[in-house]
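As a warm-up, study this chain.
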Amino acid sequence: MNRSTIAFLIWGLGGILFASQASAEGEQWLRYNYGPESSQVGVSQRSLMVTKERPSGVALPEFNDPQPLFAVWKSPMAKGGKVHIALDRSGKEKSFNLLYIDSDCDGSLKDETAVKANSKDEYYNTFGPVKVLLEGDDGPTAYHLNFMLYKYEAGTQQLYVSSACWYEGKITVGGEKKRCVLNDAGANGTFNNTSRNYYEADRIVIGEGPNEITALVGKFLQVSGKLYRLEVARDGAYIKTGSADDAVLGVIKMPSEINELTAAGENGLLKVLPKNGTGSIPEGKYRIYQWMIERNDGKGNNWKLAGEDFRESGDFEVKKGDTAYLAVGEPITSKMDVQVKRGKYAFSHSLTGRMGERATLLKNNERTPAPKLRVVSKNGTFDRSYNFEYG
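Now compare it with the structure written out below.
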């Protein structure tokens, strides 16, 4: 072996090592986990339509029940975008306690083994975790689901699905190692969904213990008040983080009494601490997630007023060189609704913000007592006071 050959091999090996290190810095890999408990932050159930109509073109097993149930789970990671499901009964069971799922996404249920219910109740059966092979970025990848079949008193049945899996590991953010967890909140098989709607975006958890933060997956990640760029693999296997010093920012204005505003959207879940009603945020489309006003009353009491649960009325867009105006904060409306049904009266009380958002009031970090309601008849023979209750 001559020197030129040795030099070439050393150069090549060095190039491989350098590429490997560069890749490791860019792509921070996470470990796949699954379990029967949907304890992941933000994970919600999706409702799947149940029908007795047999799916066309799908090979089916021999069912015990003459009228099995069928459903479809939709995922962009599945072949054809959907996975077929069937529900059957075993023996003399009154409820549907067997679940078939096209686990290899080949369009057939005939080659599948029935999954037995974990537990059963008068009104529902649970199944899972159930494994499905989806199309990942680097080939087939495992994904696990939990199911619940619910039977309503009217006799109708509804199938609910939730993610039973998540990715977890240690990542480097801002030069520090931190715990990271990715959750497919919408249970559609992908981990990089962004949305203005807080409940439709996937979740990323950074840190642990008192320093743990839960954010929405987006183009940016906010840790300890600093902004970082974020990229999440569609199958959740890795994330990338980097400097956001070059982010294009826009201006947002709001009433000067607002101490804090959080917005959700394609850029993630970002918090703004305005000064005299002015703050900045990366350009993009958002929905207000929460605003907060904090005051002291001079008697040693701390008061916090917050508004959240926005709908489309809280949508706004930020552009470079432009200013977005947000009419949030006070005044707050105290509202009481009265419903009459079969001679019975039902009263409900709520605090509402300027955009129809739900408002809450805390005194020294505790919820203020619910108001009282006094009901007096016209002739004065009935005079009673009632307490409203939260929850």
